[in-house]
Amino acid sequence: xxxxxxxxxxxxxxxxxxxxxxxxxxxxxxxxxxxxxxxxxxxxxxxxxxxxxxxxxxxxxxxxxxxxxxxxxxxxxxxxxxxxxxxxxxxxxxxxxxxxxxxxxxxxxxxxxxxxxxxxxxxxxxxxxxxxxxxxxxxxxxxxxxxxxxxxxxxxxxxxxxxxxxxxxxxxxxxxxxxxxxxx
Length: 184
Hints:
184 residues, Elongation Factor Tu (Ef-tu), domain 3, SH3 type barrels, single chain, mainly beta
């Protein structure tokens, strides 16, 4: 399932979901590292042409897993990219597909793009801020919440910590753990 890092704020970009991000070049023949945000990383090729924010389209010519322990990392050759300089110019480009090309998420599953931008509040209704990112460093998804003032909060995206997600209503309910008296 795609797990985009940013939610477009308006316009046609809002109807797209980021499924991958291009990284550094790999070798000298135009290949690049690509981080896939799909449940099955190699499925990113099945979506057909991928769209960059500037309107360029990218077609995957070849794809293989990258070495190392990160299953979401791929080595990709895009049509029309033939050398290291062309590949290097693509670094950090996010690639998206039209939302209608994606399957609807299963019950209790969410596209990260749908979580970003939701208001976060406690069960008692106290406002915590806005979900600004969804991270995964290997141990599960984390919601990053930006309050109106102060440091961001990082909350595990588990049923215990986030008991209610209301995409249509535009909010998530966060169950904050009890804090020691000196941290309140």
